[in-house]
From TrEMBL:
Protein name: Glycerol-3-phosphate dehydrogenase [NAD(P)+]
Residues that, per the record, bind sn-glycerol 3-phosphate: 103, 132, 134, 187, 240, 250-252
Function: Catalyzes the reduction of the glycolytic intermediate dihydroxyacetone phosphate (DHAP) to sn-glycerol 3-phosphate (G3P), the key precursor for phospholipid synthesis.
Keywords: Cytoplasm, Lipid biosynthesis, Lipid metabolism, NAD, NADP, Nucleotide-binding, Oxidoreductase, Phospholipid biosynthesis, Phospholipid metabolism
Gene Ontology process terms (BP): carbohydrate metabolic process; glycerol-3-phosphate biosynthetic process; glycerol-3-phosphate catabolic process; glycerophospholipid metabolic process; phospholipid biosynthetic process
Reactions listed under catalytic activity: sn-glycerol 3-phosphate + NADP(+) = dihydroxyacetone phosphate + NADPH + H(+); sn-glycerol 3-phosphate + NAD(+) = dihydroxyacetone phosphate + NADH + H(+)
Provenance organism: Dechloromonas denitrificans
Domain Glycerol-3-phosphate dehydrogenase NAD-dependent C-terminal, first and last residues per copy: 176-317
Length: 329
């Protein structure tokens, strides 16, 4: 299959390496210097140093040409880049099936990726999300990984999962697009919480409590948005939550660790050099939860710390000072 990846950050570059063994891959970069680097050195020194791009991967900065030669598009920008990217596709009259790999609620609108895509391209667009526990570095290195693929068309989800599946990257089709997107979005907020907790030295009990009660928050908001509870026990829910909350490769976890050192958010993001989606999604989740009347105290605390309304230590005290409640309420 001819696949064009739109976005040459860490994840787009890693996926182009993973897909290249089985498919004809084009990697489109919006930054010309990244494309030149990739062509000349076969390495993305800016976003993904240390991993070699196979010779077979074509590198392009020509958006229209990269789209024209594809049978499947994979949008690999952060969620902030999803709307502008699909608007460019719409302007080209593109009717190709589209997958996205970004995780989050769109800043400002609070929309999930599939809502953004169908708002721009219309409900007839065949599209879906590839999500789950997957650090770019490990996927590029060919380490065994399993993720979920959900779409607005279940037959497309199954076929795309079958096509993209390899012996290194297991892809499980899932019919619950909302659940897959919600799990991937909120785990980033909880990874910031867990990183902060670990950075403050609050111990392993705290980490387990945050992850477990965090999963309850994911499920509560997900169910309110129409997701299926079982999805949150799967790869895009608990799987990605475990990975991102405990793995130091996570950018979101590293934001939390740095917040515990009282570094300012601008400094943290500058040092990171990559997107940490939880920083933008925390506020959207907090607002959506309030609007829908869903109790999400951990996500609210993360939003308050990121906005400078609470210190990390104050957020912990506030969470622990809440009234007792029933676990399954
Ligand atoms: N890195 C990972 O391990 C990983 C794994 C799974 C999912 N993801 C998700 O994939 C998405 C991209 O992550 P990444 O690691 O590649 O980020 P990154 O910070 O490494 O790279 C971001 C890329 O997106 C491009 N970009 C940024 N804003 C854009 C815009 N407005 N329009 C077009 N392009 C834009 C940048 O030029 C760059 O190529 C995020 O939503 C992330 O949560 C990342
Ligand atoms: O580095 P993070 O925190 O953006 O996480 C990367 C992936 O989403 C993990 O599945």
């Amino acid at each position: 299959m001819k696949i064009t990846l739109l976005g040459a950050g860490a994840w787009g570059t890693a996926l182009s390496i993973a897909f290249a063994g089985k498919h004809q891959v084009t990697l489109w970069s919006r930054e010309e210097d990244v494309a030149v680097d990739l062509r000349e050195t076969r390495e993305n020194h800016r976003f993904f140093p240390g991993y070699r791009l196979p010779e077979a991967v074509q590198v392009s900065i020509d958006f229209a040409a990269a789209v024209a030669e594809a049978e499947l598009l994979v949008v690999a920008t952060p969620i902030a880049g999803l709307r502008p990217t699909v608007e460019r596709l719409q302007a080209l009259g593109c009717t190709l099936p589209i997958l996205w790999v970004c995780k989050g609620f769109e800043a400002g609108s609070g929309k999930l990726p599939h809502q953004v895509v169908t708002e721009v391209l219309g409900p007839q667009a065949i599209c879906g999300a590839l999500s789950g526990p997957s650090f770019a570095e490990e996927v590029a290195a060919g380490q065994p990984t399993a993720v979920a693929l959900a779409a607005n068309d279940p037959a497309f989800a199954r076929e795309a999962a079958r096509q993209l599946h390899t012996t290194r990257l297991r892809i499980y089709a899932n019919d619950d697009l909302v659940g897959v997107e919600v799990g991937g979005a909120i785990k980033n907020v909880l990874a910031i919480a867990t990183g902060t907790c670990d950075g403050l030295g609050l111990g392993l009990n705290s980490r387990a409590a945050l992850m477990t009660r965090g999963l309850a928050e994911i499920a509560r908001l997900g169910l309110a948005l129409g997701a299926q509870r079982e999805t949150f026990m799967g790869l895009a829910g608990m799987g990605d939550l475990i990975l991102t909350c405990t793995g130091d490769l996570s950018r979101n976890r590293r934001v939390g660790l740095a917040l515990a050192e009282n570094k300012s958010l601008p400094q943290i993001l500058e040092e990171l050099g990559h997107v940490a989606e939880g920083v933008y999604t925390a506020r959207e989740v907090d607002q959506l939860a309030r609007k829908l009347g869903v109790d999400m105290p951990i996500s609210a605390a993360v939003a308050a710390v990121l906005d400078g309304r609470l210190s990390a230590a104050q957020a912990v005290e506030q969470l622990m000072a809440r009234d007792p409640k029933e676990e399954l309420a």
